[in-house]
Amino acid sequence: MFADVTVAGTKMHHLIVFNSSANDGAVESSHRDQRRDQHRVTETLAAPLMLLIAFCALLLVPVRCLGQTRPSNRQLVVALSGTNDVKRIAAIHRIGVTREAQRTALPDMTEAMAKLASNTKRVAINKRDENDLPAGVLQLINCIGTIDSPVATESLVNVFTCDRDSWIAAAALSLGSNQRTAAITAIEALTEHPAYAQRYGFRFAVAKALVQMDDPRAWDALAMIADQTDGQLQHLMNEAFKQVTLEQFDDDAPRFARWQARVGIDVESPELLGPNPEQPEPQTDTIKLVDAPSESSSSNMKLVESEYYGIPIYAKRLLFLVDCSGSMAEAYNGRIRMQQAKAELIEAIELLEPSTEFSILAYNERIDFFQHDLVQATEENKYKATSFVRKLKPIKNTDIHGALRAALVFDSQVEAVFLLSDGRPTAGRLTAPAAILQDILSYNRFHNLTFNSIGVGVESEMRSFLQKLAEPSDGEFRLVQ
Known about the structure:
Blueprint: H1 2-18, H2 24-59, H3 73-81, H4 85-95, H5 99-118, H6 135-145, H7 150-158, H8 165-177, H9 184-189, H10 194-198, H11 200-213, H12 216-226, H13 231-241, H14 253-263, E1 307-308, E2 311-312, E3 317-323, E4 331-332, E5 335-336, H15 337-350, E6 357-363, E7 367-369, E8 375-376, H16 379-390, H17 400-408, E9 416-421, H18 433-443, E10 450-456, H19 460-470, E11 477-480
Parallel strand pairs: 3-6, 3-9, 9-10, 10-11
Antiparallel strand pairs: 1-2, 4-5, 6-7, 6-8
Helix pairs in contact: 1-2, 3-4, 3-5, 4-6, 5-6, 5-7, 6-8, 8-11, 11-12, 15-16, 18-19
């Protein structure tokens, strides 16, 4: 087009220059013709030119101005793998919740996850808990886990090599809850990880991830793990074993029978040969990881001889938290609350098996420890513990939050906590029951303690608090009237 215009313009120019002998009218006519032709050319070029300008302008507009919330790939990787957890959470939200959007972002998420796992120190860690898991990292792990892709599964399995136990546990649980069965062998191998022996919460996470897989290979792996497990985790695993049916072994009856014999279940029980249509489906997505006999381990032979306020004690390593606030000096149903609490606790301690380890935290505005470490339930230690209990006096206010926090960090091997309280929190950093619940349940995310709670004459708000504290960890609540 531009070539034609140039040629036309050139011809027109030559006409004007070399026809100088023409009269003025002719020259004026020629000028009018030239202007008319130029105007036509301008009109012809205007629309395409404007479109070209608009297109160039669009290239300079930031993506977010076009109504798109997802950042460019490099921006997303930087936000997801950076030190700022708030920005990480915002970036995950911008990805969106649709499967298509998450699959599109998967390469960016896995690249960021690899960067984080290779250098966990780049992420701010809560100094109060060396294994704390930032919310943004947990969201990233869970987002990757929801994507049914070998790439996503491999990304989370690779997290198993990082130096943060809580990250490894989170990755295992994400794989388990989404039933990424390709990861079963890798999760089973975590029983060889140092944290498996060092931390109850880590053992719990490995077992729960395998239970959630609900796959014959996972059940076989759990049968082997059960041989080396005791206490609360053994109880929860055996409760899960009771729910397994032939259908969950792909109707392979010989394999199912061998597995049942391995975990100590009566093979002839008809209800275990298949689902009962009159009963609800087994809930294998929640771990209730009973104590069944095993050929290879006498530790499975046990256990419920001791109880506290009617709650069976399965744990081999446990804490008693006793309310010693001033309100415990009040009478309830004709008996002083403190006296009743002491009697119940002394009886529970005296019935503990010698292999059990325990301690006692007596709390009001402060915490008094029987021992700052778990001690074996020998006759000598039982005598010392009951003497400690007898000397307790009810005074001052009630810091339930402080007591629960102290229990969570007391020892990494603690499996269960028994909390006794007779009223609302009145002291400590947090006193609102809802705020205490949110903090403690979040903090217990990878400690995985079982909270059992006892309310002595509590009103409805505290009753609800104590129930909600126990239920998420499959603990029990008792109301003392």
